[in-house]
Design a protein that fits this description.
OppC_N, ABC transporter permease, about 70% helix, transport, MetI-like
Length: about 325
Amino acid sequence: MADSLFDGTVEQPSRWQRFCESHLFHSFKTDRIAQVSLILFTLYVLVALLAPLISPFNPYDPSTIDIMDSELPPVWQDGADGRFLLGTDAQGRDMLSTILYGTRVSLLIGLCAVLLQATLGIVIGLLAGYVGGRIDSFLMRMADIQLSFSTMMVAIIVLAVFQASFGTELYQRLAMLMLILVIGIAEWPQYARTIRASVLAEKRKEYVDAARVMGFGQIRIMFRHILPNTLSPILVISTVQVANAIISEASLSFLGLGMPVTQPSLGSLIASGFEYIFSGVWWITVIPGLVLIALVLVMNLLGDWLRDVLNPKLYKG
């Protein structure tokens, strides 16, 4: 540092120092809701990743399931078994273990579906906004047509037709892949329209003209120069879309078009216990439902915080 004072150079701050001095980090330090939401989401992710290590039982292993243990209540109710903290379901599976594995499945479907829709939407939005003309008109009309159909309606039709055409057994083996594809493809216009609007504003700026003068190709200009300057709204959309994808998976599972009972997700757990809820066996549906509500709420709160922080109109410096 002393040498830099004598030779007239200024020591550049590291990336970590710049991040700690940024508006994003300062806003996070002062927002308790964002802190709690991030902690809870991190806990969800850790629980999902470590489910095989921390779950008391393996719900995928039939040898650990005894039908005589079915419909046991949680430990705070009479008639409970100390081995099952949150009780058991109608098949005798430990509810805590199935919720841990179900959270893993729901998060995996939500994240992969959002990754697919973001990839499609970013590529289509970049192409439409940068090239313009007839390509822009054609791609945006496709997006308008796609938006005219609800995600659930498209998913129900596609999954029902697939299940009727190829059989329930094949569908159950490919259920996770089918859910990711259907939810991902159905939601790409959200990204495409947002990226297109940002590209239309960015491509007229001087750094894009400078890149063209230097002889860079259109692909490099779009992905190396324009795309990094349009990522802020993408982060906000992705946070909310993960929650929407998880809700879509849960809704489809509730309708019998999601994950099979043998591969529990939060949605399939809620669906499997719904017929017992009025017979007093409420925990099979209520506890996974509360876990799902908390996960979606955390994702939405994080999305709201990111939207406020990354919106320059709300930043007063």
